Amino acid sequence: MAETEFALEGGCDCGAVRYRLLDAPMFVHCCHCRWCQRESGAAFTLNALLETACVQLLHGAPECIDTPSASGKGQKILRCPTCKVALWSHYAGGGEAMAFVRIGTLDEPARCPPGAHIYASSKLPWVSLPADVPAFDAYYDPRLYWPQASQCRWRALMKKDAG
Q1: Is 2 inside any structural domain?
Q2: Most buried among 5, 12, 59, 96, using CB within 10 Å?
Q3: What is the tens place of the pLDDT at every residue in 105-133?
């Protein structure tokens, strides 16, 4: 995949793993589910969704840790093998073709604000959500909220992954 003007880099705390995003995320979720709260040790997890092929390793190699998930299908969390920081995940819906990159590991996280808050029904009571960003009690239908270009990328990815 050719590098675009979007290129944004990130990595773990110790610097053992560095990566570059080669395209803008399809979408960014701020997830308030109890599983994300527990796994991150924070009030929510902020993930950029994009094709795994758009995550270019610059150096190092993350280790893949299989973990349970609320769906029962599990997730694969890719972590630095040294400092153990979670860099991105793969969930059952998109498989290994789709990466959920942890926004906090980007060098410029402010470039990827959330487009939606999901599982807001379990958000911590002291977290205030902005009125101008959609919030959902659970998940939602991406066909209703994702930009058309992102929907096209998703369909192409799923078609390629199935073929």
Answers
A1: no
A2: 12
A3: 999 999 999 999 999 999 999 999 999 99
